[in-house]
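pasting for ref. prot 1 ->
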Amino acid sequence: MGAGVPDAAAGELDRAVAQLRPGRPDLRWTGRDAWHLTLAFLGEVDESVVARLTPRLTRAAARHPCLSLSLGGAGAFPAPQRARVLWTGIQGDVPGLAALAASVGAGARRAGVPPANEGRSFRPHLTLARCRAPADVRTLVEALSGFAGTPWTATGIYLIRSRLTGTPRYETLAACPLRKPPS
């Protein structure tokens, strides 16, 4: 379950990352077509559960207002000197995003699909690259530390199926709008 990144914001980040990719062919860089903010990773979900999950996620999204977000900075999991994942951070209404992620997780639990990352603190990020073996990415984190993208308004969340065999592919199964502000 995730939120999309608008083309303009993805383009800014793509330009910042493009100059770094050639120097680190050892990393598996994600493409902008795969960039999204994960609110809850659900693992494998049976089709019958998707039918129960979608209305619960739609109700959860409708309880939360649109969010002002932006991309910025960088980091690595578990740490830059022994990274498995290089990421850029999410800025803006992070408390609102965390509340939305909690509602998504609760909806998933009620549908019988507890999030695989349950019990871990929510750390909003966008994955830029994965490392097959732990790698030192401190220079990349430093190079991206000053990156600050243009803010955008997130208006919805998406139930996304990922197929990770071969080239990763992502398919949107449902779009759930966030509550619009009163006009």
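and prot 2 ->
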Amino acid sequence: MRKHLTWIFDLDNTLHDATPHIFPHINRSMTAYLREHLALDEDQASALRVHYWKTYGATLLGLMRHHGTDPQHFLQQTHQFPNLARMVVSESGLRHALRRLPGRKVLFSNAPQHYARAVLDLLRIADLFDAFYSVEQTRYQPKPLSGGFRLLLARERLVPERSVLVEDSLINLRTARRLGMKTVWVTRERRSPGWVDAKVASVLVLPRISSSLGWRR
């Protein structure tokens, strides 16, 4: 009898490399949004964006808590990509690796739905996911807040101990671990905390390590 794990994937810097083009674009867009809607200069807006991101794990959460920002308006305005196809950097073999990975696959991203779905389509892997949770589907409770995690686990009827979060962010992985989930850190860092179950440089190696995370034939 097979005991499959459920793989819960982050999107940016996990399934594709957002660092070269996408993150700089989002950062500029968010800074411009704060500058315009909070009447700040460039330096103030940039500093506040970073402060909210470091404090809450998502700039959006700080804006909602302290300024009553409409999350839909913010996400729509800051995630516009006229040339998204040229900005997505991916690894060849991604689709093949995900197809080889046993168990259900769920996307769990702090990004808005329109952007996340567009990236999955460009990566040609949208059909491989059984469920999809963007920040809207978690009722604007972005990672690392536990509320979004609990909502996903409840809706998908998942047992935390049989669920694996695959992420590039340690703070998000820490929440998953506290809830009893397994953790895979996607990073090129040499060291990792003892509570991380596995560290990989690329999701392409996941099929090779799935047995070490508890999957058995």
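Residues 139 and 148 are 7 Å apart (CA to CA).
Strands lie at 6-9, 105-108, 131-133, 163-167, 182-186, 198-200.
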